[in-house]
Structure formats: structure tokens, C-alpha cells
Amino acid sequence: MKILLTAINAKYIHSNLAVYSLRAYARENVKNENIQIEIAEYTINQQTDEILRDIYRRNPDVLCFSCYIWNITNVECLIRDMAKLYPGREIWVGGPEVSYDAEEVLLRLPQIKGVMKGEGEETFAGLCRIWPLKEETAQEALMKNTAGITFRTRSGEIVDNPWREPVDLSKVPFVYHDMADFANKIVYYETSRGCPFSCSYCLSSIDKKLRFRDMQLVKKELQFFIDQKVPQVKFVDRTFNCRHEHAMEIWRYITEHDNGITNFHFEVSADLLNEEEMSLMETMRPGLIQLEIGVQSTNPQTIEAIHRTMRFNKVKEHVERIKKGKNIHQHLDLIAGLPYEDLASFRKSFDDVYALKGEQLQLGFLKVLKGSCMYENQKEYGLLCKDEPPYEVLCTRWLGYEDVLELKGIEEMVEVYYNSGQFTHTMEMLEQEYASAYQMYRDLWIHYETCGYLGIQHRRSARYDIILEFVRKKMPEKEKNIQEALVYDYYLRENAKNRPEFAGEYMVDKEFLHAFYEQEAKIHHYLPGYEGYDKNQLRKMTHIEYFPVMEKMLLFDYKFRNPLNQEARTCMIEKDLVRGSAGSEL
């Protein structure tokens, strides 16, 4: 019997930890050599016909889909078509998008045999023992006694069994063995399940049975990732630092066994960080860890209404301290559409969080998830959301649809001009002209809208041209300064040999360049670490730019980049080359 676990991911670089955990648990706990469990991973960007063709050719006896808000539309389409191609074969679904309204799912999709609700390891293993049975009556009798499923009987009756008790996380086998299967993909890993908090928009708040994986197993598995030189391991623990001892032991281990390559990503509550954790972080290699910090709002009434525990004064203190260390990437999150947050309130939340200067600021929009407290309180909050997944907010009692459209514009501008990391110094210079960062991004969005630039796939250099155009209209006296900042930002990231139009005339004399690289090939004052390269190679691997406003000549070194933001190392070139000064690092 062939059982196919099917995952349709949001991006190619993603993988689905759930289906790998189901297969690993079943292989260890179901002793039946006639069962073959396969995994098929696709993305929502693939044509449905392409996925359909591949599933059809795999010819499974039982087809299972992992369901989330980002793939449920694709999954339902595939289920309807597969049922026509393979009538009579069982189709099962599981995952958060079908667990909390399982009966409705079965009514909506008569092609489905059953739904696996909640954690699926033990449930899936139990079904793997049932599916091979030839006698349908025996199958049905066993299913009626299987916790964690809602299924359809032969007579069409829907049986809704109780949810299963959470699994012992230490009993779930490690799913990674041959890392070639995960080449060019993010590797997901979990050391805990459940969440101690009760945020009303989140499904993790439903599972109060917080459990941790045995630390000896965790260390062994972390060492596997380190030995394999996995580029990034993303922990899916909902609040990684909710237990101080657990977090410290893991952070201490990866610090002591750092291979200089692997990056570990953690979702944390910044206000819960303590002195011991902060002190350890200060010793870490730049790029060893990155932190995702959910602030969501700085409005106290909003924080209380969503049952969230968050002390913004502590978040601010800790984020700023981590920022000073210059060794940890911080990703800060805001959610638009929460209760009691109108446009003025959100604007303040945005400015508060933006001022912390994390490496990224994610402006997300409330998604009203089935099973969440927010879903139950839609009427009270005047909350209207889209009927189709991901059920994103349209408006609330406090936020009209026009306001949401404005915030969508702000989101796009932040993604392009902040989160891309391509305009860091330009935006810092622009911020000096504004009392509010929100207003700056709003003005940029209005400029895009007025000029008809929205909805267009702009090439990268065009984004620089648009900023310069914006400055000419809004603050023409700042044009030269902003142009210089744009050139600086451009060459920090790009070793471009074709000069972009916005950069203007190249002001470094050819004879100067020839003399500089001739000398550097011999003495390496400005480019230590380039021994063995000739003058032509040095020129290809670096860039020199004169900045007239700053009155500085800068060297951009692309071999030695900042591990956090990938910006080139820069240093100032002294005018007197004969003395061979080593230059001043910026």
C-alpha cells in the first residue's frame, strides 16, 4: 500500500516539517513492510495541472494533504480533480486550516474520507494500521475508536471523534538524515510545542500543554546540523525563550560549537530576555543567530484586548541593547487591524517600532483564523475579513477600508525601501526631514500612486530614480545629498561595472585608478587579505567612488562583507598615495 503525504509550500525554499514528522513517527511505530509512505512537496506557484500530473503518476492508494491558509485553495482544487481520476480511493486532510471546522470541511468536500485534527503523529500512525485492512467494516469500527479524526462512514454519516492528547515531543523521531534532500531550502526544527500565552489572533494559544524535547536529543540534533554545515536552521517553537533554562542551554551549545557558517533563527519575546541571555548574545559570532520579535502593537488597550503579554519599555531596552552589539539580525513584527487600533494609533505603533531600527520591520495584516479567539469575536470588533484564505482583515470598528488601503501602501514602501536593505543610508537621511517615519513612507506611497508607479515590477535601479524624483519634488534643496546617499547605498551592495544613470558622472580619474591598483597589488595597505591577486583582479573585486558633498574618496571591498546585511567593507582613501596610508574604516 502506497500512502502519499502531500505538501504544497508557499515558496520553493520552504519545506514542510509536519509531513516529515508524520512519516518518521509512522515508520518507527508501525511495523508493516507492505506500507510505503512517500512525501511529495510542491509550491503554490506551480501550475495545478503540473501537481495533478505528478500525483496521478505516483498512483497512491491513500492520498493525504497538509492544509494551511496559503495552500487550501490549491488543495481543494486538487482534491476534486483527483477524486475524478481515482474514484473510490481515500483522500485525507490535516493541518490547522481544516482541524477546527472538520465537519464543515467534510460537508463542503464530499470527496474527502476524513480529517486528522491537531497534532498528527499518533493519529497518522493509527490510520496506517487501519488502512491496509481489507474488511471495510473492521476499518470503520477501528476508526470510530481513533482519537483525533473526523471521518465519513460508508453510509455517509460524519463521525466526529474527540481530539487526541498531545504527543510526547521526545518520541517524535528526528526527520533529517540526508541533507541533500533539503539543499537550497530552509531547514525547520522544533524543540517545543504549545505556547504559554493566549494571543487572541493565534492558534498556538489554543494548545496550553507546553512540552519540550529532551535536551540530550536536542544537542545531538543540533550537532548534526552543525556538522552538516546547514546554512540556516529555523526553530518553529512559538515562543522560544518562554523557559529560560531551555533557551540558555541551546544558545550556549550553539555558541560553544559554532562552525562559523550555520545561522539559527528564533521567535522570541524580547521583553522576557534576561541579563544572562543578553550577556551570552553579546559574545556570539555575527550571524550565528537571528531573532524574530513580535511586537504587534504599542497601544496598551490593544495589547490587553488581544490577551497579549508584552512590555514595550522592556522590548525597546532589549532590542536597542542587542542592536549595539552589531552581531544579531532582528526582525520586528507589527499587525494592522487589531482591536482599538485606529489609523492614528497604528501610526504611533509604527513610529515606535521603526525607531528601534531592527534589520527588518514586517507590517502584517490581521488574519482571522478559524479556531482563534479573534474569530469568535468578529461581531464585537466589527471585524470584516475576506471569505477566501488567508482571511485577511478588510475593516474593523476602528479601521476603515480606506485606512487599510493606506497601510497596504505603507507596507509596500517599507518592503522596498527598508526591508530590502538597499537604501539604508538614504532612508536615514530622509528621516531627518520628517518628524514621523510613518509620514515619510506615506508621502512616498502617495508619490508612487500619483505617478502611476504602483503595480509595476520595477527594476532595481528604477527604485533609485524614483526616490531621486521624489526628493526633487518634495525637498529639491536636498537633491545632491540624497543622490550621494543613493550612490553610496548602491555600491555598498552592488559591485556594478555598468554605472546607473541616477549616479551621474563618474568622478574618479583613470590615472588615479591605475596608480592605486598598481600600488595595492604590491603593498596591500587598503586591501589586506588580497595577497596573490593582481591589479586587474583587485579592480574587478572592488570599487572606488568619489563623493563631492562628503569630500571623500571611498573604497568598496566586496570580498569582506558584513555578515548581517551583506554590505561591502568600506574605507576612506587618503589623497597622498605615496605615503601608503592604510585608510580609515567607516
Concise synopsis of the structure shown:
The protein is an alpha/beta fold.
Description:
The chain is of the alpha/beta class and 586 residues long. Mean pLDDT is 94; it is low at 577-586. A hairpin with a 5-residue loop joins strand 6 (149-152) and strand 7. Helices cover 39% and strands 18% of the residues. Helix 15 (401-419) crosses helix 17 and helix 20 (510-523) packs across helix 21 (535-541). It starts with a strand and ends with a strand. It contains 21 helices and 21 strands. It has a 7-stranded mixed beta sheet with strand order 2-1-3-4-5-6-7, with helices on both faces. A 6-stranded parallel beta sheet has the order 8-11-12-13-14-15. A 4-stranded antiparallel beta sheet has the order 18-19-20-21.
Main sheet characteristics: 7 strands, mixed
Helix content: 25-40%
Strand order of the largest sheet: 2-1-3-4-5-6-7
Oligomeric state of the chains?
A: single chain
Strand percentage lies at 15-25%
Q: How confident is the prediction overall: mean pLDDT?
A: 94
Overall form: globular
Discrete helix count:
21
How widely separated are the two ends? 64 Å
SS elements, strand count: 21
SS-based class:
alpha/beta
Rg result: 28 Å
Low-confidence stretches: 577-586
